[in-house]
Design a protein that fits this description.
By secondary structure, the chain is an alpha/beta fold. 41% of the residues lie in helices and 20% in strands. It folds into 2 domains: 72 residues, Ubiquitin-associated (UBA) domain (Helicase, Ruva Protein, domain 3, Orthogonal Bundle); 201 residues, Vaccinia Virus protein VP39 (Rossmann fold, 3-Layer(aba) Sandwich). It contains 12 helices and 9 strands. Strands 5-4-3-6-7-9-8 form a 7-stranded mixed sheet, with helices on both faces. A hairpin with a 2-residue loop joins β1 and β2. α2 runs antiparallel to α4. The model has no long low-confidence stretch (mean pLDDT 96).
């Protein structure tokens, strides 16, 4: 019997349902269309098309991987984020749509800096794939940015993503432990830091626990280690009227606000994610 798009989709969906994967149909569609470089509409218009034995075997290999809870975009090796195509590695978080919300929150400020002085300098601490900084640079052509990360592999991945998306001329990737090797001042300091309590990491969904790097997940005993470091050091790297933006866990709004306020910052905006949960906070420095 010849394999078709429809038959392989049905096979994948059944495997994923049996593995208790919540979005079985969606994942099957994204995985197969991504492997075959097809638009998702192909499952409607070309479902009866035959699939070669070589491609069918490859699809079954990745179906088995997803059934073991390896994330779809880890399997594909790339993910779309704010109109960019980003590659991932074992050293980077998978960029997720909710992180686009902090980009939306920061964009008006980046554009304001450009209007005021024809430039905007951005640093993304713990940059991973470079997603947040690169998204801001793609939307604001006058901006330049640095992506810093403690992981050499993440630094390499971010640099590759900048090159792939034509942003390498305005982006530099630097290996640094937070601000340790960072010089100068920035209009925007942004970070999606590790914020999960150490004791919770082992209980995360396998898609996260087994595939996202622990360095990007584990925020210390109370999940707040990175916020304390950023809040304590941001002033020395921020221009007058500059902005600090940090992503947070859904229940961390009050305590993260308190950490920054204790260092002389004030909240200027609270950002919610696509599910309506607290996702990020933007601060400016009290003067």
């Amino acid at each position: 019997m010849t394999d078709t798009l429809d038959s392989l989709f049905a096979e994948a969906k059944a495997r994923f349902l049996a593995a208790h994967i919540g979005e079985a149909a969606f994942d099957a569609r994204v995985l197969i269309s991504g492997l075959l470089d097809l638009p998702s509409a192909a499952f409607i218009t070309r479902g009866s098309d035959p699939v070669s034995p070589k491609h069918a075997a490859r699809i079954r290999e990745v179906i088995a991987r997803r059934a073991m809870h390896e994330p779809v975009h880890r399997i594909l090796g790339r993910r779309e984020f704010y109109g960019l195509t980003l590659s991932m590695s074992k050293d980077t978080l998978e960029p997720r749509p909710d992180s686009e919300m902090i980009v939306e929150g920061l964009l008006p400020h980046a554009r304001r800096f450009v209007l005021e002085k024809e430039s905007c300098r951005i640093i993304d601490l713990g940059t991973g794939t470079g997603a947040i900084c690169l998204a801001l640079l793609s939307a604001v052509p006058e901006a330049t940015g640095i992506g810093s990360d403690l992981s050499p592999g993440a630094v390499e991945t971010a640099a590759q993503n900048a090159a792939y998306n034509g942003l390498h001329g305005r982006f530099a990737a630097i290996e640094s432990d937070w601000f340790e090797k960072i010089e100068g001042r920035f209009d925007i300091i942004v970070s999606n830091p590790p914020y999960i309590r150490t004791e919770v990491v082992a209980s995360l969904a396998p898609e996260v626990r087994d595939h996202d790097p622990a360095l990007a997940l584990d925020g210390g005993a109370d999940g707040l280690d990175a916020y304390r470091i950023i809040a304590a050091n941001a002033s020395g790297h921020l221009v007058k009227d500059g902005i600090v933006g940090v992503e947070i866990g859904y229940d961390q709004m009050p305590v993260v606000c308190g950490i920054f306020e204790a260092q002389g910052f004030r909240v200027i905006e609270r950002v919610r994610d696509l599910g309506g949960n607290d996702r990020a906070i933007l601060f400016s420095k009290n003067v």
